[in-house]
Design a protein that fits this description.
Length: 169
Amino acid sequence: MRKVRLDDLDSRMGPADRNVPLTDALGAANTALNYYELDAGDSFAYGLHSHENQEEIFHVLAGTVTFETLDVQQSATPDEEPASTEEVEVSAGELVRFGPGEFQRGVNRGDERVRALAIGAPQEAGDTEILRECEDCGETTTQTIELADDHSEIRAVCEACGAVTGRFD
């Protein structure tokens, strides 16, 4: 058994005001566990993303999170509609699950601070695909996440053109 206290653990850099990794602190072997606090405009993730092998469950403890999802059924012909996004609100006391390969991104669009737990299984997510708008390309593109050389921030970088599409500290 391991017991930890959230206030004793450090937050890591990223798109959330507070992101506390709990997996190693608890010695979890088969699941990934993170605690988040989101200020207005903050997100759990660097962009709309999917995990190759991992399902994710979010338990919202306080506030309301708006999850953007993406139907990735790509058009087979030019006459078909392109992939579409949908938004789903998840409030305190509610949970939501995303299966492997499902694109999602949770954002605090309200004024109340969000507190939530994120559980992923299996712990090894496999490849993660991240999508963000790239102003230079004029479209949504795949992204890589990089730590700045001076470790001052994390950057989302367009794989198509190399433009920085987001900065997180």
